Amino acid sequence: MPINRREFLNLTAAGMAAGLLAPSALAQTPGPAKIKAIVFDAFPIFDPRPVFKLVEELFPEKGVELGNAWRTRQFEYAWLRSLSYNYADFWRVTEDALVFSAKMLKLDLDSEKRAQLMQAYLALRPWPEVAAGLTALKQSGFRLGFLSNFTPKMLAAAIESSNLKGVFEHVISTDEARTYKPAPQAYQLAMDQFKLGRDEILFVPFAGWDAAGAKWFGYQTFWVNRLNAPVEELGGVPDAVGTNLTDLVHYLKVA
After folding, report:
1. N- to C-terminal Cα distance for the chain?
2. Model confidence pLDDT, tens digit, residues 114-160
3. The whole model's pTM is what?
4. Are residues 136 and 217 in the same domain?
5. Separation CA 214–CA 237 (nearest Å)
6. Residue 3 located in a structural domain
7. CATH number of the domain residue 86 falls in
């Protein structure tokens, strides 16, 4: 079910208010012993809320409705294209989903507003605790990377705007496999680039479906569940759950 931006803000506020140093009660212990690399989806690192805040600013009467429709159609289009072997990259999918959602709601999405909303995806910033969390993980010897449905351009722009250049050893877009998570070919990319086995990689998703997909593939999985959502009824239960990267640091027993 789509979650509107106000609910998103309310749900994440509790995790933020707890501070950057205290572990969440959701994080489980002990951490895995064989992990050599930690591979992140985009949204455990980058905060998407400004995109949907802009949606509400540009369309104040139907901003929440448009944001929900856009987000839902975005992933539906990605999965439909994967299933039909009719691939288009995530930038194209994101823009197509925006155009359709505006038409569905009978909103006037002119070229200027369309460009503003798309460009917002190139200016994402990190969640508050991310810099400290990544520093702790890197100093503890973990190899860090991305595995995201974002295009290479989207990932590079977000890394640049977040001042995270040089932090990640591999920045992997599923565009390389011309498919999307949760396809096994997408998850395989991390093994191929890090040259590690499944049991040596910890995958860190934002969405419950991505946590399930990574478990189906065989990765150890720490779900950064910033929305406090229930585990998906898909049979792929994450190894541990937290609300932010501070919880991940505690899970891995990083000093």
Report:
1. 38
2. 999 999 999 999 999 999 999 999 999 999 999 999 999 999 999 99
3. 0.85
4. yes
5. 10
6. no
7. 1.10.150.240
